[in-house]
Amino acid sequence: MSEWSWMAQVKRIPATSFLSPAALMACVALGLGTNALAQQPAPAAVPVGTVMAEKRAITQTADFVGRIEAVNRVDVRARVTGYLEDVLFKDGSTVAEGAPLFRIERAPFEAAVEQAQGALERAQGTLQNATVQRQRAEELLKTNAGSVAIRDQRVAEEKGAQGDQTTAEANLKTAQINLGYTEIKAPIAGRIGRTKVTKGNVVGPDSGVLAQIVSDDPMYVTFPVSQREFLALKTNRLPADGSAPLVSLKFSDGSTYDQKGRVDFVDVSVERATDTVLVRATLPNPTGKLLDGTLVRVAVQADKSEEKVLVPQSALIADQQGSYVFAVEDGKAVAKRVKVGVQAGSYVAIDQGLSGNEQIVIQGLQNLRPGVPVLASPVTLTTGRS
C-alpha cells in the first residue's frame, strides 16, 4: 500500500473514534435525557371536593370568661349572745324565707322580758301617782290653799314619771326583740351552705358567719368586656323594650347550658387597671344547675345581624402570614388570603378576601399547591350553621 493510500484511509475514520469512553457515554446520556424531557406528560389534575362561599346574614357573637353569682347572698349571724341549743337545717338544703335555722337558749331572755315588764309597771304606777298629785296641787292653787311652787314641783314630777315610763316601755321592747333573736330565721329563700358552728357552743355577734344562704333562681353571670369589644357589641345603652343582647353559657367540660338570658346591667365606668367594663346578665335556673361562683364561658350575641361571606372551617389553612383558602379558578388551585371573622357553627365568617360565590376547596388540601390543575367535585355538608 502506498503512502497516499494509507493516509486516505486514515481520513475516513469517524471523528468519534478519537473520543474517550467517558466522553462518549456522556453524549449518549445527554441525548437520551433530552428525548425524555420532550416526552414527559403534563401533571395530572388533583381531585378535590369543593363548596361555594356564600353570603348569609349572621348574628355577631363574642366570647368572654364570666362567673356565676347569686342574685341574693346572706351571711347568717347571731344577733344576741347565748348558748346554741339546736341547729334546725341540713347542710346544703333548700330553705324557705322565714324558716328557723338556729335556736339559742331562751330562758335568760325570757327573764329579761319579765324584768322589763316589771320595771314598766312600776313606772306606770309612779306616773299615775304623779298625775294625781299634780291635779291636787292645781285644785289647791285655785282656792288659794296651795302655792305655785308646789304646783310646779308636781308638774315636774309628773313629767319625770312620764319619761321613766317611756324608758321602761323601750326596755321592754328591746328585751322582747332580743328574745325573738334567739330563733335565727332565714332572711331569704335559697340554698344554705354548711353550718360553721354546732350545738353546744356559745354564739353571739362576734362569732362570725354561722352559715350562708344564696338564692338559686334566677342567677347572675358577670363578665369583664374590653373597651374594643364593648364598642363593637354596642351594649353601652340597654334598650327599654327588653331586647337586650342574648347570652348563652358553656361549662368547663364544653357542655352548653340549656337556658339563655339577657344583659340587664352595664357598669357606669371603665375599670382603669384593666380597661374593661363589667357587664351582667340574668339567666333562669329552674333546676339549680348554675352554682354561685362557677367559672363559665359567656357568648354574647349582638342585637343586629350582619351579612357575611361564610366558608367551612375545614377550608382554612394557616401559616406564618395568616390564614388562606384554596379556590378553584379556570381549573386550577388559587390561594386566597383571608381575614377570619366570627364563628358560626361549623362555618366561619370571612371579613376580607372573598366576595362570595367562590368555589372553595375543603377536601384534598394536602396535595394542593397554587397553580396545580384540579378536578373539582361539589361536596354536600351535613353539619349545620348557627
From TrEMBL:
It comes from Bosea vestrisii. The lineage of its organism: Bacteria, Pseudomonadati, Pseudomonadota, Alphaproteobacteria, Hyphomicrobiales. Keywords: Coiled coil, Signal. Gene3D superfamilies: 2.40.30.170, 2.40.420.20, 2.40.50.100, Helix hairpin bin. Belongs to the membrane fusion protein (MFP) (TC 8.A.1) family. The keyword Methyltransferase does not apply. InterPro entries: MdtA-like_b-barrel, MdtA-like_BSH, MdtA-like_HH, RND_pump_MFP, YknX-like_C. NCBIfam families: RND_mfp. This is Efflux RND transporter periplasmic adaptor subunit. Residues 114-182 form the Multidrug resistance protein MdtA-like alpha-helical hairpin domain. The keyword Coiled coil applies.
